[in-house]
Amino acid sequence: MTLQEIIDSSDNIVFFGGAGVSTESGIPDFRSVDGLYNMKYDYPPETILSHTFFMNNTEEFYKFYRDKLIVKGVKPNKAHIALAKLEEKGKLKAVITQNIDGLHQMAGSKNVLELHGSTLRNYCMDCGKSYDIDYIESSKGVPKCECGGIIKPDVVLYEEMLNDDTITKSVQYISNADVLIIGGTSLNVYPAAGFINYFKGSKLVIINKAATSADKNADLVISEPIGEVLGSLKI
């Protein structure tokens, strides 16, 4: 079966996506050859993006964060737009994403489960007041709340737990799905990548430029850019 046929024949689809969904919008993939993990900093990105580093080297954390994780002026690509259309048509039940850029919502998707949080939301660690991305970008050094507390991005850092509610909902949607489309992820980041083991439906589709650990179990594997693949669908 082609991807078009699989989508045409189902109205219970769930999409599970990673960094590759946003690369066509100009946001670097963490693990690709030219991604964040190959950039030169005083510390490796895994260290900078850890809870310990954030607490102990907050100013250094924010230098990297403003430089690399706040990406302004980006727009949803064909993949984001196609997924929003599938949801609007009642075919797609949820987007589960490892991305923190908010592009799915910008494209019009309503039911988006953000496993790793979002750079668009930030909060004071003392009083809980919310701040937007512009406040973080325009602040100097460590962004502070009006109460004096340190502001933290609503992003799941290394050493931090994923949100329980988001995990429960993600597992529920995957468990109940008829079709699971995995796109733009190498399936190397746990615990998120382990969620796909809950899929019991009829068709597993993988769209990723590189091979993944789930390819052998898939009904359809497409090794092409995801924007081109989803953008060519008739929805």
UniProtKB/TrEMBL annotation:
A single GO molecular function term of this UniProt record: zinc ion binding
Residues holding Zn(2+): C124, C127, C145, C147
Keyword tags: Acyltransferase, Cytoplasm, Metal-binding, NAD, Transferase, Zinc
Record carries keyword Zinc: yes
Organism, scientific name: Hominilimicola fabiformis
Record family assignment: Belongs to the sirtuin family. Class U subfamily.
Compartments where located: Cytoplasm
Record InterPro entries: DHS-like_NAD/FAD-binding_dom, NAD-dep_sirtuin_deacylases, Sirtuin, Sirtuin_cat_small_dom_sf, Sirtuin_class_U, Ssirtuin_cat_dom
Cofactor binding description: Binds 1 zinc ion per subunit.
Cleavable signal peptide: none
Cofactor or coenzyme needed: Zn(2+)
The Deacetylase sirtuin-type domain, residue ranges: 1-235
Residues the entry annotates as binding nicotinamide: F30, I100, D101
Record-level GO cellular component terms: cytoplasm
Described purpose of this protein according to its UniProt entry: NAD-dependent protein deacetylase which modulates the activities of several enzymes which are inactive in their acetylated form.
Stated name of the protein: NAD-dependent protein deacetylase
Binding site for NAD(+): A19, T23, F30, R31, Q98, I100, D101, H116, T185, S186, N208, I226
Pfam families for the chain: SIR2
PANTHER family, per the entry: NAD-DEPENDENT PROTEIN DEACYLASE, NAD-DEPENDENT PROTEIN DEACYLASE SIRTUIN-5, MITOCHONDRIAL-RELATED
